[in-house]
């Protein structure tokens, strides 16, 4: 790439302060406009000068020419009267006027007229003194024609004087009109260009910023900004970019906090608090619309023994494996959480107790069949005891309490089974604590 | 020596004349009862007081001008509007009519008088007159004495002679007979005129006998009486003074002259210090040209165009 191309790219990529850039543009336009105005003013001055010349010089000169033509014509007429006068006094009088007119300063000022007038006067004086003859009259007719032609010449010259000036003015006005059109075109181009630049470098970036802010509000991934030429816009875009990054980090942190606040860190299942909140809402909905809903409590059989035999790491792996199994086995509408230790709580929405029982049976069966790989060729299987209770007529805590009681019953009945609690009207007595249950259910709910 | 002219129609004297009552011809056209009532009203003390107050105010505000007009002949009594007595007074009549129109446009109360041409510029200088209608050519010497209005018309100078004298001199002169070729002859000119000044300059060189007279008419009379061989006069004035019936009739000799101050534009003269009056006068003359009243006035007196 050549140097000038590099320079041009650098120059075009450079950011310009909007105020200065538009002031520079305005100044350039102002200069161009001023130059054209001066250009136009020269024509106006020329028109004014022409009109002043027309008024002060040409029109008086034209009138002078016309007047001279009229005097020449009068000289001719009085010359005619010198020949045609009825009385000697009339002829003499006409001769006096011929002499007077041939002495007119306007006639004397023009050489052609002065010569011809003098010739006419001399001829007429001679004719008057020596007598009128046919030959003299023929000569006079020649002179008379010359006088007529001269008068015509002056009339035409007078008209041409004004015509020349008017043509000059007309040409100037035409040129001025063209220049005015150019000035208007310049103004139109500038206004159009100015609006285009404002749209491209101010309005469009602002619109993009608005779109970016909308995207930030909606949580969509913001579109990256194109690099603006205006320094202020570029600064704003930078600020919005920073805001976008900060908001993105905040959203990630918030999501992480939300996950931490709602899930169990070991198994990835809902934690008890979140489950309770969701279950409360779901129960309210089911109660309002009289829909069936069940809750369940599950406890891994002999989990303490696994911990004691294989260590807590294996216990954790077992819990994770069970969580994954629950995820695969349960329906999308079923909720499960790690209630505490090796206990799990369930919520079966839109499910009757019998349906929940069948579902729980299947879960118990799959758990019992599930081989938990512990690595190095070893593994184990675990079983699950599960108590169910119909929650469509009870509060959540009461339903969980009955499910917990059913769980104890399942433990007592030999584990790896499902026991459904009786309805809320026929409570069953709480069984003795099994080997896996170290504390009453009410206290464990406080985990 | 000046001759006073009758006051113009618009003068206060004429306006006061209305109070003469029923004798005024203006009342003749009115019905008798109305005329009597009007006359009684006009002759009462209140209108007299009002008229006096108006006249006093008018006198205090109106421009008063003394206008002098170049006398054409020794005993002219020209009055505008009357039939012209002879062609020799036409220019004076034109000047009087022009002066009256100018006064009317200036809203001035003017007093008109005739004076010989030579007395006009000294009269303006000595403040005896405010406006001089003497058909003065504009020259540098005169500009030092008086101010000039815008041009009125244009003049040239020419020699006049009786045919016999002209022929005699033409035979003596090798070429065309002009003022420069005149030698050892008597030449009459109007005292104070440009022709007179020119002759004074060349008289000694060309051995001319200069005869100073008051008017062009006197110059023609001198030609008639064989007291002068030539008259060197303004062409228009000479034309006006010439009588076609006279025998022998003087003729123009040589070409018309405009150089050396012998021709050019003719102006009204006024005091150099009266700049405001000059501006008002020029304005009035411009208006007269623009509304056509000046050409019409000229045509009332002259059948040709000299402006």
What does this structure look like?
The complex is a heterodimer of chains A (447) and B (307). In chain A, 71% of the residues lie in helices and 9% in strands. Chain A folds into two domains: 15-262, no CATH class; 264-445, Alpha-Beta Plaits (2-Layer Sandwich). Chain A has a five-stranded mixed beta sheet with strand order 2-3-1-6-7, with helices on both faces. A two-stranded antiparallel ribbon of chain A has the order 4-5. Chain A is rod-shaped and about 180 Å long. Chain A is α+β, with helices and mostly antiparallel strands. Chain B has three domains: 21-55, no CATH class; 62-153 and 264-301, Periplasmic binding protein-like II (D-Maltodextrin-Binding Protein, domain 2), CATH 3.40.190; 157-257, D-Maltodextrin-Binding Protein, domain 2 (3-Layer(aba) Sandwich). Chain B has twelve helices and twelve strands. In chain B, strands 1, 2, 3, 4, 5, 6 and 12 form a seven-stranded mixed beta sheet that branches. The longest helix of chain B is centred in the first third of the chain and has 17 residues, at 45-61. Chain A binds chain B through residues 67, 70-71, 74, 88-90, 92-93, 96-97, 99-109, 114, 118, 121, 125, 129, and chain B through 154-156, 158, 163, 235-236, 239, 242, 244-245, 249, 251-252, 255-258, 263-264, 303-307.
Distinctive features:
heterodimer; A: 447 residues; alpha+beta; Alpha-Beta Plaits; 2 domains; 5-stranded mixed beta sheet; two-stranded antiparallel ribbon; 13 helices; 7 strands; 71% helix; disordered C terminus; B: 307 residues; alpha/beta; D-Maltodextrin-Binding Protein, domain 2; 7-stranded mixed beta sheet; 12 helices; elongated
């Amino acid at each position: 790439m050549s140097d000038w191309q590099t320079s041009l790219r650098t120059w075009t990529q450079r950011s310009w302060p909007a105020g200065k850039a538009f002031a520079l543009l305005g100044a350039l336009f102002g200069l161009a406009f001023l130059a054209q105005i001066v250009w136009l003013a020269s024509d106006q001055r020329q028109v004014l000068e022409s009109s002043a010349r027309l008024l002060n010089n040409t029109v008086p000169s034209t009138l002078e020419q016309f007047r001279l033509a009229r005097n020449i014509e009068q000289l001719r007429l009085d010359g005619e009267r010198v020949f045609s006068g009825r009385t000697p006094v009339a002829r003499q009088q006409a001769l006096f006027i011929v002499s007077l007119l041939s002495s007119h300063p306007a006639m004397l000022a023009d050489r052609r007229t002065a010569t011809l007038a003098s010739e006419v006067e001399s001829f007429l004086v001679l004719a008057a003194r020596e007598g009128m003859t046919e030959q003299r009259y023929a000569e006079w007719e020649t002179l008379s024609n010359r006088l007529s032609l001269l008068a015509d010449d002056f009339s035409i010259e007078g008209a041409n004087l004004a015509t020349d000036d008017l043509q000059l003015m007309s040409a100037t006005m035409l040129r001025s009109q063209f220049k005015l059109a150019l000035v208007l075109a310049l103004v139109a181009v500038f206004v159009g260009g100015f609006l285009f630049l404002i749209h491209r470098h101010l309005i469009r970036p602002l619109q993009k910023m608005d779109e970016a802010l909308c995207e930030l509000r909606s949580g969509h991934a913001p579109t990256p900004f194109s690099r603006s030429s205006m320094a202020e816009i570029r600064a704003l875009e930078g600020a919005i970019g920073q805001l976008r990054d900060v908001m993105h980090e905040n959203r990630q942190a918030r999501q992480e906090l939300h996950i931490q606040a709602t899930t169990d860190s070991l198994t990835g299942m809902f934690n008890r608090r979140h489950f309770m909140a969701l279950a409360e809402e779901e129960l309210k909905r089911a109660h309002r619309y009289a829909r069936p809903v069940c809750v369940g409590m599950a406890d891994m059989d002999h989990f303490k023994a696994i911990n004691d035999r294989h260590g807590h790491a294996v216990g954790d792996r077992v819990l994770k494996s069970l969580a994954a199994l629950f995820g695969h086995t349960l329906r999308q509408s079923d909720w499960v959480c790690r209630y505490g230790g090796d206990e799990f709580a369930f919520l079966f929405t839109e499910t009757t107790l019998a349906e929940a029982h069948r579902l729980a049976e299947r879960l118990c069966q799959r758990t019992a069949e599930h081989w938990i790989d512990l690595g190095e060729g070893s593994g184990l299987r675990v079983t699950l005891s599960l108590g169910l209770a119909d929650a469509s007529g009870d509060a959540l805590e009461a339903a969980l309490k009955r499910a917990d009681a059913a769980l104890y019953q399942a433990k007592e009945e030999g584990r790896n089974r499902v026991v459904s609690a009786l309805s809320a009207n026929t409570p069953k007595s709480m069984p003795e604590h099994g080997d896996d249950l170290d504390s009453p259910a009410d206290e464990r709910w406080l985990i | 020596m000046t001759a006073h002219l009758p006051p113009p129609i618009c003068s206060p004297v004429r306006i006061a004349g209305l109070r003469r009552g029923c004798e005024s011809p203006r009342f003749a056209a009115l019905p008798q009862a109305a005329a009597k009532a009007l006359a009684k009203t006009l002759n009462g003390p209140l209108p007299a007081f009002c008229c006096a107050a108006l006249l006093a105010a008018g006198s205090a505000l109106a421009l008063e001008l003394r206008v002098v007009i170049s006398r054409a002949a020794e005993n002219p009594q020209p009055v505008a509007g009357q039939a012209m007595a002879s062609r020799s007074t036409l220019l004076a009549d034109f000047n009087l009519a022009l002066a009256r129109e100018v006064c009317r446009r200036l809203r001035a109360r003017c007093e008109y008088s005739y004076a010989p041409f030579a007395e006009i510029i000294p009269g303006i200088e000595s403040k005896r007159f405010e406006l001089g209608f003497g058909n003065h050519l504009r020259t540098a010497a005169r500009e030092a004495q008086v101010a000039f209005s815008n041009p009125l018309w244009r003049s040239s100078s020419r020699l006049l002679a009786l045919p016999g004298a002209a022929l005699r001199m033409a035979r003596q002169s090798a070429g065309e007979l002009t003022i420069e070729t005149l030698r050892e002859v008597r030449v009459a000119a109007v005292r104070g005129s440009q022709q007179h000044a020119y002759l004074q300059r060349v008289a000694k060189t060309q051995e001319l006998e200069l005869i100073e007279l008051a008017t062009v008419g006197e110059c023609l009379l001198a030609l008639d009486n064989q007291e002068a061989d030539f008259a060197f006069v303004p062409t228009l004035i000479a034309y006006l003074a010439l009588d076609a019936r006279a025998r022998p009739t003087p003729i123009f000799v040589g070409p018309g002259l405009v150089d050396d101050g012998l021709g050019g534009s003719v102006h009204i003269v006024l005091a150099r210090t009266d700049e405001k009056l000059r501006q008002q006068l020029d304005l009035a003359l411009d208006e007269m040209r623009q509304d056509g009243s000046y050409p019409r006035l000229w045509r009332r007196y002259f059948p040709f165009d000299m402006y």
